[in-house]
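A reminder from the course coordinator: this example appears on the midterm review sheet, so study it carefully.

Given structure:
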C-alpha cells in the first residue's frame, strides 16, 4: 500500500510564505527524483499563507529516506518553525 502524507503547510506571515515560495521548487525537484516517490505535490490554496501537501511513497523505507534527506536540506533550514498539519498513513 505504501506510505501517504496529506495535510497543510501553514505560514504565520508573508515572510514565511516568501521563504516557502523560494525554496519549494528545488525541494519538489529533489523529492520527485527520490527512489520510491510516487507523488509529491505542494500546492498553494486560496489563502496565500497555506499550501496543501500530498505525498505518496512506495514503502516505509522510501518515506523514511525522504524524511532524512529533507530534514538535512536547505528546505528544512528555510522552513524551520513553519507549522505543518499532516496525517501520515501506512507506517508500521
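Designed residues:
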Amino acid at each position: 500500500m505504501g506510505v501517504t502524507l496529506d495535510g497543510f503547510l501553514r505560514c504565520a506571515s508573508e515572510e514565511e510564505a516568501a521563504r516557502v515560495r523560494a525554496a519549494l521548487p528545488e525541494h519538489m525537484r529533489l523529492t520527485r527524483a527520490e527512489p520510491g516517490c510516487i507523488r509529491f505535490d505542494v500546492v498553494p490554496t486560496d489563502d496565500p499563507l497555506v499550501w496543501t501537501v500530498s505525498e505518496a511513497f512506495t514503502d516505509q523505507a522510501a518515506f523514511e529516506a525522504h524524511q532524512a534527506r529533507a530534514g538535512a536540506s536547505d528546505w528544512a533550514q528555510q522552513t524551520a518553525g513553519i507549522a505543518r498539519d499532516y496525517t501520515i498513513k501506512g507506517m508500521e
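The first strand starts at residue 3 and ends at 10. The chain has one domain: 3-89.
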